[in-house]
Design goal:
The structure is a single chain. This protein is an alpha/beta fold and 149 residues long. The chain has one domain. Helices cover 30% and strands 21% of the residues. It has six helices and five strands. The protein has a five-stranded mixed sheet, with helices on one face. A hairpin with a 5-residue loop joins strand 4 and strand 5. It is elongated.
């Protein structure tokens, strides 16, 4: 099937793990993830699981992943080596190079969308950064990555 590039914004909060959990909750609730059993992929149709835990118990999901923010299980800190199923922060240098400012807005992110996705090292990796409002206050955290099989 291949991998998919995705991005997902969630309201800003200082606790990055809580922000990721909020993104997970919203993506799962909105069914904003790949479901192998929707009848399009030669598999029998099945209803989606009622919980994220049950979603990850499915062998097909564990093999193909969800092609979404749900595939990110860990938030990395500055300087940590990128790894599969983890999101690393952009460096200051990457932020200023990609957005032309140290406090990018959602408009900046959307404008630089293709370049932003280009910083992903390899399939299974993800990044995140804070986005700011017009008054330059933190407003959102955006996660993006390339996941799936």
């Amino acid at each position: 099937m291949g991998s998919s590039a995705w991005d997902y914004c969630t309201p800003y909060q200082q606790d990055l793990s809580a922000a990721l959990a909020a993104a997970h909750e919203r993506a799962f609730g909105e069914r904003d993830y790949f479901w192998l059993y929707d009848g399009r992929w030669g598999t029998p149709e099945r209803p989606r699981p009622p919980t994220v835990e049950e979603l990850w118990q499915d062998e097909g999901v564990r093999h193909s992943f969800t092609h979404s923010v749900l595939d990110v299980f860990e938030i990395l800190g500055e300087g940590e080596e990128p790894r599969v199923c983890a999101a690393r922060p952009l460096t200051w240098e990457e932020i200023t190079r990609l957005f032309g400012t140290s406090q990018p807005t959602r408009v900046d992110f959307d404008r630089a969308h293709d370049e932003v996705h280009g910083v992903i090292e390899e399939r299974g990796h993800a990044c995140y950064t804070v986005l700011y409002d017009k008054q330059r206050r933190p407003s959102e955290i955006v996660f993006w990555g390339v996941t799936g099989d």
